[in-house]
Design goal:
Blueprint: H1 14-37, E1 43-47, E2 51-57, E3 66-71, E4 74-79, E5 102-107, E6 118-122, E7 125-131
Antiparallel strand pairs: 1-2, 2-7, 3-4, 4-5, 6-7
Length: 146
């Protein structure tokens, strides 16, 4: 008689539940720690042939709230949102929105044309373009075999 093991995700054993919990644990805690305690907004960095594109989600901000600077090869993106004035005739039952400040720093190297970095803010996402120097761009060339 052959024993066949069947994996049925709908009837997970306690051991399977514990294993899945601890496999997902670092990811869940990391995101929560980043967003709730350290106030780091998530960032995407995309490598294109001509530049590095940085996308930072910061909904509820305006472009005037951001400060982006480059000093000693460290690119710092920060934001400070001022608290809104409370209205006397308004009774807030629950407030989950918060105005938080943050600062993110990234080290850049000589591959970036630092004088041509640009930024724009639209639809809750701050987009930065860090153009590559000519020497850093991938060279594609056919080599003739002699």
């Amino acid at each position: 008689m052959t024993h066949v093991k069947v994996h049925n995700p709908m009837s997970k054993s306690f051991d399977g539940f514990v294993k899945d919990f601890f496999n997902d644990f670092p990811t869940a805690v990391g995101k929560s720690l980043r967003e709730d305690v350290l106030h780091f907004p998530p960032v995407n960095i995309i490598d294109t042939p001509d530049s590095y594109e940085v996308e930072l989600i910061a909904a509820g901000m305006s472009k005037e709230d951001f400060k982006v600077n480059l000093e000693n090869n460290v690119l710092t993106i920060s934001a400070q949102k001022q608290e809104e004035e409370k209205k006397e005739d308004e009774k807030v039952i629950r407030r989950e929105f918060s105005k938080r400040s943050f600062s993110r720093s990234f080290t850049i190297d000589e591959k970036i044309e630092s004088e041509n970095i640009s930024a724009k803010y639209e639809n809750g996402v701050l987009h930065l373009s860090l153009p590559k120097r000519e020497i850093a761009k991938a060279v594609k060339k056919d080599i003739t075999i002699l």
